[in-house]
Amino acid sequence: MTLTELGLQVEELFARAYDRPPHWIAAAPGRVNVIGEHTDYNDGFVLPMAIERYTLVAAAPATPKTNTIRLQSTVGDSVTEIDLSRPLAPAKKGTWYNYPLGVLAGFQARGIKPPPFDALIHSTVPLGGGLSSSAALEVATATLLETITGKKLNPVDKALLAQKAEHEYAGMPCGIMDQFISVMGKKDHLLLLDCRSRQTELVPMTDPTVELLITNTNVKHELTGGEYAKRRAQCEEAARALGVGSLRDADAAMLERARGKMDNTVYRRARHVISEIERTVQAAEGVRASNWPTVGRLMYASHASLRDDYEVSCPELDAVVDIAQSIGAAGGVFGCRMTGGGFGGCTVALVQSDKVKAISERVAAEYQERTKIKPTLFVSRPADGATVLKKSSGE
Ligand code: GLA
Fold first, then answer.
1. What is the pLDDT of residue 76?
2. CB distance 178 to ligand 1 below 6 Å
């Protein structure tokens, strides 16, 4: 389904839920990270792209006149009411509407006060699949609020506002990658983001002979569970032992020299981050040159490092990468790795376009045989970032 068709579907769903058409519809994509994992909060590089999976938020002014924002999602049928006459505060941990709530709080903190409205949320980004369904929800909400209030934020500020919502309302100390790509994604491009300077470079990826195949292991990943925060703390510990502000300022030789100053786990965490930053820069170079074997090799190396040194993979992710590797270049697979925070979720594989069907069938069958879980596979071209699909005239 195209984004325009999805917009029409959401328009209908809104009308069914609220008995009138929406005035505004905003959409923001999920993402897949091609390479550069767990590097964003170490001031490193990441290389994600927006995918053709979106979260949409449709809304209309509240009626009758109340001071309440009503939120409904097509996943559950209960209605959440946010009373605008009271100060906002996070709901219980794990509550889905903490994401829009945190974004609303960010607007209020900037002196932008959205009026009461009714909203419906619908998403085609798999939830908890490591494809940034939460960033898509935050950024779609932020885009909606920009449209409703007529106050456009600059893209960096918008991404940072969404990240803060995730930190303070959802309790997940994420880096900046997911929100940046959901705001700034561009059709036919990967986004090379320098997480220290926040400079971005759009890297074209238009070669029709390759595709990115995403396999959802359908093992839910749960990042607020503490492991993510633990990894962050270990990276900070390594940086302190190395005497640098962040691991971006370290290199492999420095790490080897300081090996005795940190415990082995912290050493391995740092080894992953330092090598992954290097791989990401090299992979961007490989994409620019359409050198797919090189990009693929770096993806496999990234996976091994995340599995062995960073320890954020799981048997199901490893199984998909293993199957991809056994299909190999002869079968049309250049490389494959886990993508996102880890502990479940998805893998991303760089594959030959004309072999996608055969590869998907083989991965699905072998994965199911090994794990007894049915995976979900799909391909996506790099998509555009957040966009407004409907804005009623006079608004
Ligand atoms: C999650 C976080 C990102 C990033 C990745 C790992 O998706 O939200 O900021 O740290 O994990 O690369």
1. 82
2. yes
